[in-house]
Design goal:
20% strand; alpha/beta; 148 residues; 5 helices; five-stranded parallel sheet
Length: 148
């Protein structure tokens, strides 16, 4: 059935459910599990007239903060996989769009299933806020299992 399951996490409680589902499925099918966390690229603060001023963060600080967040989110994949006796790997990537990063990473690692969570926003909230899960579903040629 599945040989390599890819699970996307953002560290949320919903992602934890997706991780549990992916671990159970990997255990049942003997698949390898890869957890991925997508980091937005660093954008330098702009200075000038009319610019909103906020806290300034350096590239180095941004990298440290995002690497820590990625490590914390991916720790749940490691813990779940070890508890389930599943072979696993984790990775963090930088991408402008999380959905695109997930698809590119899954393809590059040879995944045959992507597992991810959905907040289930509908109507105007779904349109305005968008959905990384919906975009993965729309653009991926790899099957996607959505957990809610």
């Amino acid at each position: 059935m599945y040989k390599h399951i890819f699970v996307a996490t953002d560290g949320s409680d919903l992602s934890a459910k997706a991780i549990r589902t992916a671990v159970e499925l990997a255990g049942a099918t003997g698949a390898k599990l890869t957890g991925v966390y997508v980091i937005a690229p660093f954008v330098a603060s702009a200075y000038g007239e009319g610019v909103m001023y906020g806290p300034v963060i350096s590239r180095k600080s941004y990298k440290a903060i995002t690497e820590r967040e990625a490590s914390e989110a991916l720790a749940a994949v490691e813990i779940g996989a070890r508890a389930g006796g599943v072979k696993y790997a984790t990775m963090s990537i930088t991408a402008d769009s999380p959905w695109a990063g997930i698809i590119v990473a899954a393809k590059s690692k040879g995944a045959d299933l992507i597992v991810m969570a959905s907040h289930g926003r509908r109507g105007v909230a779904g349109i305005v806020l968008g959905s990384e899960t919906t975009k993965v579903l729309t653009h991926s040629t790899i099957p996607v299992l959505v957990c809610r």
